[in-house]
Amino acid sequence: MNLNQVTEFVEASKIAITDANKFARCVDGRYENIVDMPLGAKPGGDVGDVIAAFGALNLLQKHLDPQVVIDTVLKLTDGANHFNFHTDTHADPSAIGLGCGHLKQAKLDPVAYGLTQDQIDFLANALPGLLEQGAHQEVLQGDHAEQAVVVVDSEAYGVVPLLRNGEDLQEAFVYQKTLHGKQLDKLANLLQESLAAKAEVVESADVRKALDEAFGKQLTETLKRLADGLPVYVAKINAEGQVEIAE
Length: 247
Known about the structure:
This protein is an alpha/beta fold and 247 residues long. The chain is built from seven helices and twelve strands. The strands form five sheets. It has a four-stranded mixed β-sheet. A two-stranded antiparallel ribbon has the order 1-7. It has a two-stranded parallel ribbon with strand order 2-3. The longest helix has 23 residues. The termini are close together.
């Protein structure tokens, strides 16, 4: 997509954030025809926050039981019923979540994502149990056809990643940076509380800094592996829905 095309795309696909659609999905561009499309787009959906939390703890050289880390993210989502991730039709149905490129790449190369093998294995093995508790795995259809990466900077709007007009298809990787930033703020506080409960003294600001560093490293890895060569745009959308695109 060029600048004009991505501007038209965002104008056509922006949706106001409400209590019904504020939940998470992945940045994957294949989400389509979903009621109350989740607008909190972030790499890996809520699974991505578990990966970021593991990476942050490793940077801080602090340890939490991996189940405690998952439970901490579940607090962020207000329980398993709002814990969202995805797979796709290309993946083995028994390999829960591995149709998600962010999770798959982290599992293939945990060191590059700042993780240990034990951490990523624990997460992958925990996903079936989370489904039994009420977590949701969306099964995405078809092949990737993303034409750009769109970073959404807005407190009021999200962007649907796929638009169809007859035979014409527009699709983009979409990251809702503003919503995710607020979630990472909360996650930092929750992780700090979990560490304090086992007498590990770490300032919340230091946990937040480590989350930024860990997530930034993981996002860079996924973009390099799945979106290499695609143009990256920042879409600022104000409270009135006015769109401003920057490269």
